Amino acid sequence: xxxxxxxxxxxxxxxLSSGLFLIGFFLHGNFSLYFNISGLLIVCGxxxxxxxxxxxFEQLQIVAKVLITTYRKPTKKETDIINILIDLSIRSRMEGxxxxxxxxxxxxxxxxxxxxxxxxxxxxxxxxxxxxNTEMYFFRLRREDSERVLRAIADYLPAFGxxxxxxxxxxxxxxxxxxxxxxxAIPIALTSTLYGLIFSNFFFLPFAATxxxxxxxxxxxxxxxxxxxxxxxxxxxxxxxxxxxESFLTPSERETExxxxxxxxxxxxIARNKKQTEEENI
Length: 282
Hints:
The protein is mainly alpha-helical. The protein folds into 2 domains: about 1-35; about 40-245 and about 255-275, no CATH class. Helix content is about 80%, strand content about 0%. It contains 10 helices and no strands. Helix 3 (about 55-70) crosses helix 7 (about 125-175), helix 4 runs parallel beside helix 8 and helix 6 (about 110-120) packs parallel to helix 8 (about 180-235).
């Protein structure tokens, strides 16, 4: 529910900011003046061609899939993952580790399924940690590759915008003395740079930033899962496990209340009194 609210806020923000952005074009002139098919073809065609030369087509497909997944499928909250792990911890203590095999087949989180598979198969703690750390490492590398592709495309766009402007200027110089040629060339020269800057800064750089943010969030969830599964393997008490995993959360997200000063004072007074009693007995 909370994730849905955040997503709706993002959509509202996108529509509002895009509306303000477009209003800026309408205020001083006709919107049709900013549309030029020649400039658009130069920028988009040139950038797409450069991307195909730089990267494999399969890699570009992967980037597209990552983007679609990032915007369409929200990640689970850290608190949800912690609750799942605590439930698994209690289940393993009551019914044994092999009872987690059913949960392994039910969960939709691939990393958690991988971790539970290691747990059910009886891997040692060091082996589980090594396997999951390797999984996290290459997951981060794959996501960094997608981010790198998007940032490279964002760099290509302004460059091809300048190329479009140069093409327009050359056409203008070739049409000196012919007003109709100059009037046709001016929009190409100006709109090409505009398209390159808009596509780069309004789309591809934000796409790359979104993937980076999503990657960091998923790595945090994976770290929580790894520590939780290792704790379950070592048969850690669920209460202690909950306290440990809540260390990954911000203070506002933690369910555990802080110990009051009165209780702390009482506890340390008891400890001090015991020490004084021992000294007196000696």
